[in-house]
Specification:
The strands form two sheets. Strands 1, 2, 3, 4, 5, 6, 7 and 8 form an eight-stranded mixed β-sheet that branches. Strands 9, 10, 11, 12, 13 and 14 form a six-stranded antiparallel β-sheet that branches. The chain has helices spanning 2-29, 34-37, 59-72, 77-89, 97-117, 124-138, 149-177, 195-204, 218-228, 271-283, 297-313, 337-341, 379-382, 420-423, 425-433, and strands at 185-189, 210-214, 242-245, 256-262, 285-294, 325-328, 349-353, 365-375, 389-391, 396-398, 401-407, 413-418, 439-440, 449-450. By secondary structure, it is α/β, with parallel strands linked by helices. Helix 5 (97-117) crosses helix 6 (124-138). Helix 8 links the parallel strand 1 and strand 2 (210-214). The radius of gyration is 26 Å and the shape is globular.
Length: 455
């Protein structure tokens, strides 16, 4: 019996020694080991992790919102909230006048060709009527959303928690990757219910000394202020130094450490207006500009249009000559590979959250959103660590290997199969611990094949 025990102990010792040798060999083959990028933290908390656990509204915000929504006693609130959510999700950009004229000329030519084939003579009025009728049938009818108090309450029930979640997740990118950033001022364009104020306060607390909310809707500004005061006009606001405006500050000298535009560019009436507003917001940005939209094809294309505008314009002013660079989520500044190869498939991300606890609401929901963060400074200086590939799809964990779909620093989409043997123990365990939206550390892109159209 004793000899058997002795043999078992010897085998265990040899196994442990063999494991140590294998780890050292792996470190020799893959020089970027745990010491290089983990800095002593567990693999599940590696520096590329930016996803958050299931988010919940701040307690004061949730309490105030429940009080306002339930106190309004709006009939059919649940159905109206669901309808509004679906309408906002399916919303498209307005058709540009130039595109509309081109389509009208094409339709006019088609009508005349059909008349010629049938040997019929159409007068000008008939052709015009046919063209207008077809345009109305096939053109998206964009109209601005006009919020009164009731619709604002419906919007609160429908989108308060989801909007907060998207902004909070986008801001977490800055919080994790640039821990030295401590903003003193915030500008929230298209502030709505003030979710960016609450999300920023959750990240940086009382560091923020001045927060300016700009929204053209007076009723929405009133509701946002009620949320800050816990639905009590006589109470002091939970977050101080918050100011509400209906127009952007005029002075070009006024800059803010953090500028946020959440679900607002898509509400502007034309591309020209979007570009002009974007350049104005950039002039007022001293550190970071955060843009968030629905995770739809339209939302993604609006953000890529904004991203490319600022990168190509590289506008320099006498007040701030620093140009724009992409901080997140793109690990490069080239053309978006998804937009170039798969224009119908948006680059979006998911974040779980608890919705506003109202009668009939689910326990947990998922917010699908797209975002872009632009920085005034070089991202290599602002971010901790190198630019790593971004996971743009769910991670598929299989026995002894992990399938990762990434957007990489070379500006390409890649499908990488991560294994312990090929990439080392640390990278493999980080890959298993990562998820959609995180950055994936130390993937050698020469080993990763470009994503084919079938994938």
């Amino acid at each position: 019996m004793a000899s058997t025990t002795h043999v078992a102990i010897v085998i265990c010792q040899k196994t442990s020694a063999l494991r140590i040798i294998c780890r050292r060999m792996s470190s020799a083959v893959h020089p970027q080991t745990q010491v290089d990028f983990l800095n002593g933290v567990p693999h599940r908390k590696h520096p590329g992790v930016t996803n958050l656990k299931t988010l919940r509204l701040p307690e004061q915000l949730q309490r105030a919102a429940q009080s306002i929504v339930l106190g309004a006693q709006i009939k059919g609130l649940s159905d109206r909230a669901q309808s509004l959510t679906q309408y906002l999700w399916s919303r498209k950009r307005p058709v540009e006048d130039l595109n509309l004229r081109k389509r009208a000329k094409s339709l006019e030519k088609l009508v005349l060709e059909n008349a010629k084939e049938r040997r019929e003579a159409y007068d000008g009025d008939y052709v015009k009527m046919k063209v207008l009728s077809e345009l109305k049938r096939t053109t998206y009818n964009w109209t601005p959303v006009r919020f009164d108090e009731d619709l604002g309450v419906v919007y609160m029930a429908a989108r308060l928690a989801g909007g907060y979640t998207a902004v909070r997740r986008a801001l977490n990118e800055i919080l994790v990757r640039d821990p030295s950033f401590a903003p003193h001022s915030l500008l929230d364009f298209g502030s709505g219910l003030g979710t960016a104020v609450w999300a920023s306060h959750s990240c940086w607390g009382d560091t923020l000394k001045e927060m300016v909310c700009v929204d053209s809707s007076g009723p929405m500004n009133v509701l946002a202020e009620r949320l800050l005061k816990d639905d009590d006009d006589k109470a002091a606001p939970h977050i101080k130094q918050v100011y509400f405006r209906q127009f952007l500050p005029v002075s070009p000298k006024v800059q803010f450490d953090l500028v946020v535009g959440a679900f607002s560019l898509s509400e502007l009436a034309s591309q020209k207006e979007r570009v002009e507003t974007l350049l104005t917001l950039w002039r007022k940005t001293s550190s970071y500009l955060v843009l968030v939209e629905n995770g739809t094809k339209e939302g993604h294309q609006i953000l890529m249009e904004a991203r490319d505008t600022l990168l190509k314009t590289q506008e320099q002013t006498s007040l701030d000559s620093r140009t724009a660079s992409v901080f997140a989520p793109c690990p490069h500044e080239m053309t978006c590979p998804k937009l170039a190869r798969f224009p119908a498939v948006p680059c979006n991300f998911h974040q779980h959250y608890h919705p506003l606890p109202l009668p009939g609401s689910p326990v947990r929901q998922t917010e699908t959103f797209s975002y872009v963060v632009l920085s005034r400074s070089d991202p290599k200086e602002a971010a901790a660590g190198p630019r790593w590939a971004r996971l743009v799809a769910p991670v598929l964990r299989r026995p002894r290997h992990v399938h990762c779909h990434t957007c990489s620093p070379d500006g390409q989409l890649h499908h990488t199969v991560v294994t312990r043997k090929k990439h080392g123990r640390d990278v493999y365990r980080c890959a298993r611990s990562s998820d959609w939206g995180d950055q994936l550390p130390i993937i050698q892109q020469e080993e990763a094949g470009p994503l084919s159209d079938s994938e």
